[in-house]
């Protein structure tokens, strides 16, 4: 179960996760490497207003 | 071909150490997927040890005279030049960038950085002023202390030089962490620095950003943070600094405007597009990723750029005629290709490129075609978001006022350029675009002696110039009364 406390780096192992994130306006990977924090913090920095919605969608996509 | 060592350790307190937990990760060649070397994944105790070593070394290093510090920086520069081929080759193998770039740009700019700051520190002076006839005010510049530095994978050696040279010049000691994607060249630089510097003055810890990097950011023993990387991660660096009430300088992301007027010097301008977006495979924070072309020349300029892009030799980066090498890893390649798809959906036309390359021996690496997305609107995601790859977005404009407005319609402000022979227009446009660096009739020239840094979400602070010494030092005022006469208040 992916939550806001899931480390972004751990999510990068999921197949197709990067295009999924880019499609949703969030880049989990940059010239630093994987974002060094939680999914919640990344979504906050990116100004995602419906955090619960995107996490629900993420779980639906990767854990159908 | 030269090869890196099969394994590297952490460089702490002048010694190479395997790390307390013995965890390692592999450095991978992005051109063929082969393991280049094993590196240490630093744990908290390793980072603690590195910061402690830097703190202990600082007590002596801060008292070393500018003359002696300068001499050491010059020796490091000489060692970089003497080992240019090894450093360039290892950088090419680890990062994927062409050998012609590492030999001609990354390595020479790195050694020059040490030379520049060796010179700068000899000219630094304090100030003295008589406040009144009985009062003397002295302003002294003192080192700030132990500096924690984190650098990205796109220019590992050069970013190492940008961070380490001025810190040493300022009298600070350093704990620096390269990206786990490209650790090798900085470790090779550490080998050279160990021949010159006292133990503990520079310490190199390697490992994953989310682990070793966070241990460094959270360490209470640092006096300053220095970071080059994405804007998103910049926020976390700024948070870490704020929690400790220490300063941070940040060189972050960009979506820079490369602006072409009808009187641009044509052939040089075409090359300016290529240098702006294909140099280092477009993996450059200040890449000229938004190409603004005046409507009078748009069609011909686009056609000539397409023709030029199609001729670029993409290949194994250690081959001397390769002009564009591998993307740094699979994650970054996926990100770039995802953005190309978004561009298509937004209505942009793929004028050339757009695909991964797997033919002619490139199937095991992360190669792609130089790409132009044409007919882009400035509000499209591909024009607003940092792609960080060899993807140029072509945007048409009519007037000077319009292109300035579009150039400024970005949350970033790092680089940019204006191409014209009209000096008045060049200065008007360069002055009006909200960005830290505007090139005129050139792009991606990043020598020492010209300050570089961002406006807006592209960062805080300036590098590549002695003004960085302001961030790496602190000022002490010694306020002296020269009279023995009582004030008369008590």
How does this model look, in words?
The complex is a heterodimer of chains A (64) and B (490). Chain A has 64 residues and is mainly α. Chain A contains four helices and two strands. The radius of gyration of chain A is 11 Å and the shape is globular. In chain A, 33% of the residues are buried. In chain B, 39% of the residues lie in helices and 21% in strands. Chain B has 15 helices and 24 strands. The longest helix of chain B is centred in the N-terminal third of the chain and has 25 residues. Chain B is globular and about 80 Å long. Chain B has 490 residues and is of the alpha/beta class. The chains are: A mainly alpha (64), B alpha/beta (490). At the A-B interface, helix 2, strand 1, strand 2 and helix 3 of A face helix 7, helix 8 and helix 11 of B.
- Give the termini distance of chain B in whole angstroms: 80 Å
In percent, how much strand structure appears in the residues of chain A? 5-15%
The whole-angstrom Rg of chain A is: 11 Å
The number of distinct helices of chain B, counting runs of at least 4 residues, comes to 15
Quick one: biggest sheet of chain B?
7 strands, mixed
Give the termini distance of chain A in whole angstroms: 11 Å
- Are there runs of chain A of 5+ residues with pLDDT below 50, and where? none
Gyration radius over CA of chain B: 24 Å
- Identify the quaternary structure here: heterodimer
Q: What spatial form of chain A do the alpha-carbon principal axes imply? A: globular
Shape of chain B: globular
Strand order of the largest sheet of chain A: 1-2
* Beta-strand percentage range of chain B: 15-25%
Give the proportion of residues in helices of chain A.
Answer: 40-55%
Count up the domains of chain A.
Answer: 1
Largest interface: A-B, 23 and 35 residues
Helix content of chain B: 25-40%
Mean pLDDT of chain B: 98
Number of strands of chain B: 24
